[in-house]
Predict the structure.
Amino acid sequence: MSVFIPVGIVILAMLIMIFLQLSPGIYALFYHYASGKYSKKRTSDLGMFFILGAETIAACLFLCCYYFAYILFIGQSRPETGIFAWIAAGILIVLAFCSFFFYFRPGTGTKLFIPRNFATSLDHQAKTIKTRSDAFALGAFSGTCELIFTLPLYVITAIEIMEMNTEYFSSNLLTIIYILTPTIPLFIIRWLFHSGRNLSDIIKLRIKDKHFTRFILAFCYLTIAILIICFRINS
Amino acid sequence: MEYLDEQSLIHDLKVDARALGIPSGAAEIFITRTVKDAQKSFKSKQIITEQDLKRAIVKELKKYNHDFAYVYENRDKII
């Protein structure tokens, strides 16, 4: 099996992780409220714990998926040749469709697919953070709110990395890079705040990139589905 | 309704102003004026909705600081 297909799938999954908007949105709100209430140092400290929480949950989810994939598929028929590959491709096509049409709600802002009451509750949580543990918990929670979009990716990438030919590439290195990926947009938001930008600039940036984000998400989901259909089902 | 009393509204506006880097003295003055002018615009109305309140505050804030008005108008549209 070529190493390029699993690496390609993992890179596309990383791109999706970078373009997902819920965690960065909560982080931006949280950072805005925290900088209005606390000193720069304390805000930065709380922000770091938020990122740590998001990172921890991403690592836990990925390693859980890896573990279950290992238990389910090791020693049995290869997962990609069975019905699993069809199911995975189907889910990814549905997600491509959903991310293009339903990820952002219609309207002027960047309102996401989550229920409005839930969004208000998240906004309230971001507003009332006082301690590091609150920030850590909110970061971890924000990582689980988009499970509908991320869980299939965690499962597919776990299997791809598990099945990878490690002759040319260390699968452990790829695992670490993949686990670190969901925090890249958070670090970008942090850098934007540190470089003097405010929430207004970040909102404008998100609105400007809204359609591009939708397109990239749909494109990546669809490409992974096509790669699975072409190279996993027919191989 | 998000803001049941004037004090919590003023408090939230002050938090936003500080986060946006607006000097506290200036923020205090124009937040007080904004809330007062918004209240004046409701004098003739019997019932006001949350949207009415938001629109009035955004309209008043735009007179002082566009970024502030933009954040207040759009912060519930981020997630």
Remarks:
- Chain A has a mean pLDDT of 91.
